[in-house]
User: What shape does this take?
Amino acid sequence: MKIGITCYPTYGGSGAVATQLGISLAAHGHEIHFISYAQPFRLSGFHERVYFHEVEMERYPLFEHSHYSLALAATIHDTALREGLDIVHVHYAIPHATSAWIACEMLNGREAPPIVTTLHGTDVTLVGMHPSFRELTRFSIMRSQGVTAVSEFLRDVTVRDFDVPAERVQVIPNFVDTELFKPDPGPCHRQVFAPAGEKVVTHVSNFRPVKRVTDVIDAYARIREEVAARLVMVGDGPDRPRAAERARELGIARDVVFLGKHASVEELLGCADLFLLTSDSESFGLAALEALSCGVPVVGYRAGGLPEVVSHGENGMLVPVGAVDEAAAAGIRLLSDPEMAASFREDAREAAVERFAIDRVLPRYEDLYRAMLGQAAE
Ligand code: GMT
Assistant: This one.
């Protein structure tokens, strides 16, 4: 099949998943056309049958704002025509599903490829719910021939808040490259982060308010009162300065390292002892899955779809949103009980491989594409 994939290219789970999906589909013999305003951050190296089409946004003095949605529609339309796309698969509803719909309308009579929209999170729970976007989001979801959500939680929210019939939304969970995200990668940077043999606690996110990164700092501050540990903060975003300030206020700044954006988080996760994720909403929590795949237990808030990824008491601990003390207590237990830590690490890796490895999830997308094209599933 020839598949067009649109995603946000910046650091974020939806772009990471869309890119991995495209690369894996290409390895399965499909032809993949990424359509985005920049090369997706995890699309590096050469991959046979993978092409990239950049969305050009002309600047013109009359326009104070760029017309990204329209430029994207034009590029999807152009790519569909020139390459003969069989499927257009967009990740994140706003505005990608809308742009895909415009592109297919523009084909006007020529055979338009079916649109598959994958809902990722704030496209439904936040941005899509804004009064100015709600109707547009619903319209775009309903005009997609295939709709997937990355968790049961997100499917339920979509059905409830957008009045979308439940049978229109299929849950296909996110997945992870378990060969890349694996325990004990070489070289290990543990010595750099924790030269005196301290435990390594890690957090990876885009530091937006929803991630509550100051809670990570607060929980870590309590953990280090009991266990010698260092905190490695990976990523960047609006709340990074607040998190750094909090670490300074608590007098622990020297034990907290802010690495900024990192393209190869697997190198960092692989040498961590604990992953902290204190979001107040998380439709799935890809960062947590990547940690599990590296054999790293997760302590986080019981929010959204995270309980579908992290099994409480088996490979992580989930506590109520905002319960920093409970999160810290869970972290302390895990870091100071070697037997428990070993069992959680083993379960984390096993769960990632058994439930979320690419080979488990990819066929579900292929079946969906075939169903859209009226072909029998393999
Ligand atoms: O929706 C967002 O906030 C952005 C999006 C992204 O591009 O990172 O994150 C969402 O999609 C990820 C991939 O499916 C999920 O793992 C994240 O849980 C989800 N974020 C939220 O729901 C806050």
